[in-house]
Amino acid sequence: MKFIRLPLLLIFCLFVISLCTWKGTESIFLIVAAAVTLCVAFVAGRKIKENTTLKIKSTKKDAYLTELLAERNWLLREIQHRVKNNLQIVLSLLNSQSNYLEDETALQALHDSRNRIYSLSLIYKKLYQQDSSENVDMNVYVRELVTYLQDSYSSTTILFSINTDEIFLDVERAAPIGLIINETVTNAIKHAFTDKHIGTVNVTFKRSGQGKLILTVADNGRGLPDGFDVNGFTSLGMNLIKGLAEEISGDLSIYNNNGTVIKLVFLEEDFNEIATIEIK
Q1: For residue 222, is it within any domain?
Q2: What keywords appear on the UniProt entry (predicted)?
C-alpha cells in the first residue's frame, strides 16, 4: 500500500504546483476539494483493507471452531459408544454368572444389579443413536426402560401406563432418573401386587409449569405398611432412591393414595448451571 501512496502523493503535489502556477490563488477551492477527495480515498481504501482482513480472519476462525466442534462431538460419541459396550460386557458377565448360582437370594440380587446396569447402558445407547450427543430424549428412554423391566420380570398381569412430556436431560441427571425409575418400577412389580392378580403401574414425567419437572410412579397395589417412615427404611433400593434424589437436588415424597406413590420434583434446568449464573 505504501508503494501506491507515494506516487499518488507525488502526482498530487505536482498537480497543486501546476494549478498554482496556472491560476494562482483562484484555484484554492479546487485544491482543497482534490485534497479532501484524496484523503477520503486513502481512508476508504484503508478501511476496506481492514474489513477484508477481519473477514478473512473471522472466516478462518469460524472454520477452525467448526472443525474443533466436529472433532469434540466425534470424541464424545466415541466415548459414549465405548461406555455402552463396556456396560454390555458387564451385563454379559452377570448373565453368565447367574448360570452358576442356585441360591434364590443371590440370583435375585444379580438380577436387580443387571437391571440397574441396563438402565445406565440404555442412556448411552440412546445418546449414540440420536443426533444429539449430550441430551437424552426421556420420552423415548422411559418407555423403553419400563418395557424392558416388564419383560425382565415377565409381568404379564401388570398393566403399565406411561405419560411423559418431551423432556431432554443431560447424562448427569438422566442417569439418576433412570435408576430411580428402575428401582420404583421394580419395587411395584415385586411387592405391590402380592395380594392381587391384576394391577396397574402409572409412570408420569411432566413439567410443572414452574421451571420444575415431576416424576411420579404410582401403583394401585396394597400400599405402604402402617407406620412407614421413608427415613427409617434402609433397604438398598430405598437408600439408592434417596441418594439419587439428593444428587439432583430433588424433593422426594413417598405416600399412600389407593396404592403407593413415589414422587420426585426437581429443577428442569441444570442446578449447577443456575448456581453459577447466580454467583456471576
Answers
A1: yes
A2: ATP-binding, Kinase, Membrane, Nucleotide-binding, Phosphoprotein, Transferase, Transmembrane, Transmembrane helix
In a shared domain, residues 32 and 143: no
More confident call, 80 vs 147: 147
- Using 50, 70 and 90 to split pLDDT, how confident is the model at 207? very high
Instruction: Tell me the pTM.
Output: 0.70
Q: Grid coordinates representing 256? A: 399412600
96 and 140 within one domain:
no
Identify the sign of the CA torsion 47, 53, 54, 56.
positive
Domain that holds residue 59: 1-100
User: For all residues of the chain together, what is the average pLDDT?
Assistant: 78
Question: What's the Cα-to-Cα distance from 89 to each of 125, 145, 159, rounded to whole Å?
Answer: 14, 19, 31
Any idea of the CA torsion for 33, 35, 41, 44, to the nearest 10 degrees?
Answer: -100
Collapsing DSSP states into helix, strand and coil, what is residue 153?
A: coil
In order, the DSSP letters of the chain are: -HHHHHHHHHHHHHHHHHHHHHHGGGGHHHHHHHHHHHHHHHHHHHHHHHHHHHHHHHHHHHHHHHHHHHHHHHHHHHHHHHHHHHHHHHHHHHHHHHTT---HHHHHHHHHHHHHHHHHHHHHHHHHHSS-SSEEEHHHHHHHHHHHHHHHTT-TTEEEEEEE---EEEHHHHHHHHHHHHHHHHHIIIIITTT-SSEEEEEEEEE-SSSEEEEEEEE-SS-PPTT--TTT---HHHHHHHHHHHHTT-EEEEEESSSEEEEEEEESS-HHHHHHHHH-
Q: Interior CA angle at 167 toward 166 and 173, to 5°?
A: 165
Residue type for position 55: K
